[in-house]
Amino acid sequence: MTVSRIRIATALSAVAAGAVLLGACTSGESSETATSSAATSSATATGTAGHSGHGTGAAPSSRAVTAQFNDADVDFATMMYPHHAQAVEMAKLVDGKGARPEVVELAAEIQGAQQPEMDAFTRLLAQWGAPAPSASMDHAMDGMMTPAQMDELRSLRGAAFDREWLTMMIAHHRGAITMADTELQKGVNPENRKIAEQIKSGQQAEIARMEKLLA
């Protein structure tokens, strides 16, 4: 082989080697770029998922609040408020009627138990964005006395008052227990359900006491 051919062959070999090296570098850079892009995409996806998770974590407060009550809860609080209001009104009538001490004591207990529950219903309805409750009487509700019955009760004194008051309050309590049972079957709000349980157990015990007083 002549010197010229040797030089040409050497030059070609160098060019080929350079091309291979360049290809390797380019391939390495492409691989690194791809890896970097994948990592960036992964990080972005993770970041987005994390943000979404945080957003979901913030939103549950709204969803959780919504999940804490339903229409049955609103109905119970709204209707039990005036129901309790009439019971409190009946309890206040005992004063000055010459009622038996046992009736006076029971009336005070009823008033002491039901007024705080009315306050709780007002607070819960406000938290739920529902209309404020009203003491206006819906006399069609379970156990509610009519205006005529209330007027008759006001006109009585002594033993006649005691008898009528106990009879009416037993019917009133039974109506409240029916309403509490509906809340316990259909309601979901923990505090509302707890009040319903208290109403049911407390008024069942009071009915037993009143029935003994009537016997």
From TrEMBL:
Entry keyword Disulfide bond: no
Keywords for this protein: Signal
Record bears the keyword Ion transport: no
Signal peptide coordinates: 1-16
Compositionally biased tracts (Low complexity): 30-49
Xref: InterPro entries: DUF305_CopM-like, Ferritin-like
Highest taxon listed in the record's lineage: Bacteria
Annotated DUF305 domain residues: 73-214
Location of region: Disordered: 30-63
Protein name (database record): DUF305 domain-containing protein
Organism of this sequence: Tsukamurella paurometabola
